[in-house]
Amino acid sequence: MDRHILHVDMDEFFAAVEKLDRPELRGRPLLVGGDPAARGVVSTASYEARRFGCHSAMPMARAVRLCPQAIVLPVRMRRYAAVSEQVFAIFDRFSPAVEPLSIDEAFLDVTGCRRLLGEAEHIAGEIRRAIRDELHLTASVGVAPNKFLAKVASDLNKPDGLTVITPGTIRATLDPLPIRKLWGVGPAAAERLAVLGVATIGDLRRLGPRLLHDRLGEAGDHLARLAEGRDDRPVTPDGQARSIGQEQTFATDVADLDLLRQILADQVDHVARRLRRGRLRARTVTLKLRYGDFTTLTRSATRPEPTDLSDDLRAMAQALLTAWARQSFAPLRLLGATASGLSAAAGRQLELFADPARQKARRVDEALDAIQARFGKDSVRRGR
What we know:
- The chain is α+β, with helices and mostly antiparallel strands.
- It has 3 domains: 167 residues, Reverse transcriptase/Diguanylate cyclase domain (Alpha-Beta Plaits); 53 residues, DNA polymerase, domain 1 (Orthogonal Bundle); 138 residues, DNA polymerase, Y-family, little finger domain (Dna Ligase, domain 1, 2-Layer Sandwich), CATH 3.30.1490.
- Strands 5-6-1-7-8 form a 5-stranded mixed β-sheet.
- β10 and β11 form a beta hairpin.
């Protein structure tokens, strides 16, 4: 409880950038994402559109039906990525411990920065002020003793909010919140917990860890810890990580194996880029697979030599997914990929007779990294 963690989350980021570039859009409902006629999905809904029930990851066609007056704009990832770099440059001024979560949010550990910069709440206010004054955007910030609580806090007073959770206010803050605020609780899990009379985090906490373990196993242990506000995970910049991963929880269980393969390929590409950016290589790839009933499996593979090549990591991950599907396929509510067994890329032994195919793969990775760094991660993608 002696840590001071910030979670900074940019408000309606894609929509906010569009309003910044086109002031005439301010105050109007915006939907940023794919074409509604081509099964597009909402990437960001402005707060004006959210009042009509629109939200990210919703089919664009449905969002347009809910809010027919909304202005639909295509994703301009190159522009958003450029603004994101400016946002993260501000983060770096306040703490060396910055863990990116996505293009528009991050954790910062400011525990060791307080003697120089002031208390955590003051640092959070300075970050919000810098984003507002320099970029003319707003961010919501949560301040808390750990990552879970900081993320909960940042979501309580959006937009442009600053919320502090202290050790003495954890229960008072968490208990009234709906159970869906806990990481890992989706619609199916919420229905199972409702049978136990659980609607809020306080209801869950009062059940006690023993009953939760009996009913939900390891998932129950996880939820019991979160309901008490406990989370020991450190804020880990990519260059200091013991593992680097990416996972996604689906709104509804996914039963399409081809879609799961595509999602996994994107996750592994993201992990590989982070490895290369952190000058790291990995020996082990682990899949995380969670069914609708919260049963969670992991499947791992390890190679003799560490690698940061996307082709290597993707082949390992896809082989694991194929083996799992042959043995115990069932619809998934969560899929994730993690690279571990990390070592520094610098200092590796050079190959005496380098494989031309691997040299070509490395050049492809370097070219894609350069393009995506400049124009955004969705500017170019590998063929399936």
